[in-house]
Design goal:
It contains no helices and 11 strands. Strands 2, 4, 5, 6, 9, 10 and 11 form a 7-stranded mixed sheet that branches. The protein has a 4-stranded antiparallel sheet with strand order 1-3-8-7, with no helix packed on it. The model has no long low-confidence stretch (mean pLDDT 94).
Length: 125
């Protein structure tokens, strides 16, 4: 079993920045593809950003390209999401996603093997 813990959510004004962190632990010697999804009230959970096991490839939803940056600590199952120029539309619960088996470029709900508990991000106008 893999344990996934997120941190870094909060309240920020529009135009501000936040940084989310996520650490996955439990299976020694295994490096995962890591990513982030978000879910706003009354909406589906949507893909935000993903990164492959080595950090050499990143993937973004169109809505966050140029504003959000995903990165990971070398050789560790720790991922970060730097969110700049935040908008009220970015308000959601953000979930860390861990993938062990599916291709790293595939970021659907069903491709995720483990989820974090979620962290709230609220952007005020």
């Amino acid at each position: 079993q893999v344990h996934v813990v997120e941190s870094g959510g909060g309240l920020v004004q529009a135009g501000g920045s936040l940084r989310l962190s996520c650490a996955a632990s439990g299976r020694t010697g295994t490096t995962y593809a890591l990513g982030w999804f978000r879910q706003a009230p009354g909406k589906e959970r949507d893909f935000v950003a993903g990164i492959n096991w080595s950090g050499s490839s990143t993937y973004y939803a169109d809505s966050v390209k140029g504003r959000f940056t995903i990165s990971r600590a070398n050789a560790e199952n720790t991922v970060y999401l730097q969110m700049n120029s935040l908008k009220p539309a970015d308000t959601a619960v953000y979930y860390c996603a861990v993938k062990a088996f599916s291709p790293p470029e595939l970021w659907t709900l069903s491709s995720v093997d483990y989820w974090g508990q979620g962290t709230q991000v609220t952007v005020s106008s």
